[in-house]
Amino acid sequence: MKIEVCVNSFESALAAQDGGAHRIELCEQLDVGGVTPSHTLIDKAMQELSITSFVLIRPRAGDFIYSNSEFKTMLCDIAFAKSIGVQGIVSGVLLSDHTIDIKRTSQLVKASEGMSFTFHRAFDQVLDPVKGLEQLIELGVDRVLTSGQKPDVVEGFDVLKSLLEQAKERIVVLPGGGVSITNVEKFLDAGFKEVHGSFRESVIENSSPQKRIKKETHTSQQTIKQLIKLIKLIKK
Q1: Predicted confidence (pLDDT) per residue in 56-81, tens digit
Q2: pTM of the model
Q3: Is the N or the C terminus of the chain less surrounded, counting Cβ atoms within 10 Å?
């Protein structure tokens, strides 16, 4: 089983790599579900890390219905990512009726040619996931990141399992949103090949000179190591 870690800083990306993760999804502003990271952060990750790196292409928080200007920005960001060797793109577009925007998603997939393409958790807002999955397969999407259309993967497990059975290895169904050491065995046993999470821990920091206590969250290298160790033990 492969572990993809969603990271919003270089420090978290480094922790994911050192913890033994197989891949990162690089973004910023995780508190709003993630947006496209700065070109500076993408470039630094590609220059200094060896881990397989996917980049989130999402121009803003909120819905997944974009203006022409926003969509042009998405295409430009994909072009930049491709130019510096990013291995994968994570993105997607919906229509106002909560169906997949086939035309624009097709353009994103085409722009990402030579890179892997993941349709992100916009999928959890699609009204007909069965039809939606078939549409993504037809578009040539490599994987779909989803919590099973529920707040987290535990609640969405039945839908995730159904999608996995429907996929029949034509597309990777990537559970994301609440994957942890306590439930990863369930996904491994069900036949999922990859899982996604931020695997963060809270860190108390002192801000000087006033020494105010500030709580930050960072990817936990130790949690990732424990997760990978557990998966190896289960597979034995």
Answers
A1: 999 999 999 999 999 999 999 999 99
A2: 0.92
A3: C
In tens, the pLDDT along 110-147 reads: 999 999 999 999 999 999 999 999 999 999 999 999 99
- The domain covering 2-235 belongs, at the CATH homologous superfamily level, to Copper homeostasis (CutC) domain (3.20.20.380)
Lookup: tokens for 7: 């990271």
Q: Can you point out the beta strands (E) in the chain?
A: 2-7, 23-26, 52-56, 88-91, 116-119, 143-146, 172-175, 194-197, 200-207, 212-219
70 φ, ψ (degrees, to nearest 5):
-65, -40
| 172-175 sheet: strands from edge to edge | 172-175, 143-146, 116-119, 88-91, 52-56, 23-26, 2-7, 194-197
* Contact of 62 with 35, CB cutoff 8 Å: no
